[in-house]
Structure formats: structure tokens, C-alpha cells
Amino acid sequence: MAIYLTKESKVLVQGMTGGEGMKHTRRMLAAGTNVVGGVNPRKAGRTVDFDDRAVPVFGSVADGMHATGADVTVVFVPPAFAKAAVTEAADAGIGLAVVITEGIPVHDSVAFTTYARQRGTRVIGPNCPGLITPGQSNAGIIPADITKPGRIGLVSKSGTLTYQLMYELRDIGFSTCVGIGGDPVVGTTHIDCLAAFQDDPDTELIVLIGEIGGDAEERAAAYVREHVTKPVVGYIAGFTAPEGRTMGHAGAIVSGSAGTAQAKKEALEAVGVRVGSTPTETAKLVLAQLEDRQRAV
């Protein structure tokens, strides 16, 4: 089992014929992703060869869905065109839009995440690494060879920390890893992923990675208290960040006492989430939790 993405997923790539789109489409195909087409109105009707696979290019998301039955799109378009790309995908009725693009204006992100939600399209991102269900499918830029299928679910604001935890826990493996992005506005939240992992029978433990800024982790803690029965282990990036300065992600900024790593850590620990002080310690907490569950069986 998995959340959002499985071996059955059929993936379109908006911006596939650009440099980043070409590079990461090749990597997704190598990971076993069923990439069924690209989208570029100026190159419709062509095919692009990726090693032993020829991938057709369609003029629109709707055309690609009609021809292939695609249910996922991965967006690799420049920031100025991201709003139009996601709006097009939502209008076509696609189920999942994974927006890798960074640097999108916040007002555009507000507009297209709201519009997609109204149309029934789940957006992951923007400014995210995407998501991977190891051994099944990879939609985005997450390295596919650093872990294996397993029973840990991972949701993270940080791409780099997603990769690090995947590697540190590679011997256990993951059901699905979701990089939700670190911008102030994202289409899928920690809470969305917590709910999905809670309902996934093959996810035994959930890892939640947050960072300074905003109150997403505090809201996730409240959700864990009321709705999550599986063990959750957390990590918060940014304990040493100076006040008032954006650190890496546009959403990672602290004002006064709001949004600090310490406040988030305390909120999570108050509902029973073990929180590591480093990624390596977080991985050790995961292993300890799994060992405790094994002994209890």
C-alpha cells in the first residue's frame, strides 16, 4: 500500500521537453514510474526518446489524459507559467498535481491551490521535491536509489532532510515519502499526510519533518492528539536560525516567539511525539519506536 502514488499511477510531465523536465523524466522512468506523456503545446505530436522508451508529447493536459488515462501530472515549468499549468491540470480533472517549481509568487500559489482544491485536484508543493513510493513510482526529483519499500511514512517540508532520513532509515524502508514544500502556501499539509498515513494499513510509523516559521507543526500536533493512533517521530529544522531572517524556504521565518523550533518541539512532545535534536537522532528514535512495538507484539 501507499498514499497518493502507486505503481498504477499514470504520470504526465508538464515541461518535459525543457532541461530539468528531460533530466528528471529520465530519472523517474529509471525508477519505474509509468510516465505516459509530456505536455508542451508547441511540440504536440512529437515523441521524446529516453533510452529504450519513447514518450509522446501532447498539446494539453486534457489531451494527454484522454489519450493515456493519466491521473498524475508533475510540473516542471518556470515560475511565471506555474499558475496557468496547474489551472490547466485542474480544469482537465487530473487527480494529483506535483509542483516542483520554486520561486512562484505567493499570490499565484494561493490562486492555483485554491482553484485546484475546488476542482478536486490535490496539489503537492509548490517548491517541493515531490513524492516517492519506493519500488513503485517516483513523481518529482527525490533520489530513488537511497531507500527501499518498507513500513515508515514520511512527510517533510524540506527536500534535503527528506533524503537524509530516507538514507538513514534505508534498512527499514518507506511506504511513501512526501515532500510537501516549504513555501508559505502549499497544497498538501502535514495534516493531510498524517490522515492518509493513519489510514494506510502498511504504514506502521510516521516521521514528520518541520521547520521554523508559521504554525503548521503546532496544528499537526493538535491533529495527532485527536486522530492519530500510530507512533509519530518528529524533527524540526532551524534551532539555530536567527530571529527575523528567512532561512532557505520562504516560509521559514520567525517573528518574536511565534514559529520557533523550540515551540514546535514542545507542541509535538506534548502530544506524545518523540522529537529528535538532529536527523541522526531522529532516525535512532524511529528505530527505538519500532523495536518497542516489536517487543509489545
Automatic annotation (TrEMBL):
It catalyses: succinate + ATP + CoA = succinyl-CoA + ADP + phosphate; GTP + succinate + CoA = succinyl-CoA + GDP + phosphate. Heterotetramer of two alpha and two beta subunits. The active site is at H249. Pathway: Carbohydrate metabolism; tricarboxylic acid cycle; succinate from succinyl-CoA (ligase route): step 1/1. CoA binds at T17, G18, G19, E20, K43, I100, T101, E102. Its EC number is 6.2.1.5. It comes from Streptomyces dubilierae. The keyword Disulfide bond does not apply. This is Succinate--CoA ligase [ADP-forming] subunit alpha. Keywords: Ligase, Nucleotide-binding, Tricarboxylic acid cycle. NCBIfam families: PRK05678.1, sucCoAalpha. Coiled coil: none annotated. Residues 4-104 form the CoA-binding domain. Succinyl-CoA synthetase functions in the citric acid cycle (TCA), coupling the hydrolysis of succinyl-CoA to the synthesis of either ATP or GTP and thus represents the only step of substrate-level phosphorylation in the TCA. The alpha subunit of the enzyme binds the substrates coenzyme A and phosphate, while succinate binding and nucleotide specificity is provided by the beta subunit. One of its GO terms (molecular function) is succinate-CoA ligase (ADP-forming) activity. It is an enzyme of class 6 (ligase). Substrate binds at Y163. Pfam families: CoA_binding, Ligase_CoA.
